[in-house]
Amino acid sequence: MSSNKFYVRRLSRCICALSLLSFTLLSSVAPVSAQAQTAPTKVVNSIEDLIPEMTKAGTVDAVLAMMRPPVSKTTLTKSDYLLLDSPTIAVAGIMSIRMVSEIPGTEFFMLFNQSPADKEPMFITAVSTPGIGKAEAKIKAKFSKNADLLLVVKAGGRWYSVANDIKIATK
Question: Which range is the signal sequence, renumbered to this chain (predicted)?
Fold first, then answer.
């Protein structure tokens, strides 16, 4: 029994020595310099980070060129697994638009008005999605003239699109 006490005491001394050594090593690590901590870095983490630049772009292709990898309207794949639900004929004003993707791995939606009227934006919205299963988003947008909508979706590393027209009725 006395030999077990000896090993227990020796083991506890080793543990104490190891904890002191680790404390010494951790406290001797030099802190990061203040300059390195405050250095500004612009990292694009999501589609929302690009929205300010997208609103300034003049064309759909200019926005698509900002994406990684860059893409253009001509290289988009038309898909039957996308739904752009908007009224086909409506009165000028605010209308609801529903975007649905049944393509697995959908990362985000981007909605464009390819024929914007004066003072109406070409880029309407960008919505991130979880990237699994069916993705859906609803927005409200204001239109005063006919609109040629284009929904662009990135899913599984590929680019897909669907188009829809809204005719604005005149009184």
Answer: 1-36
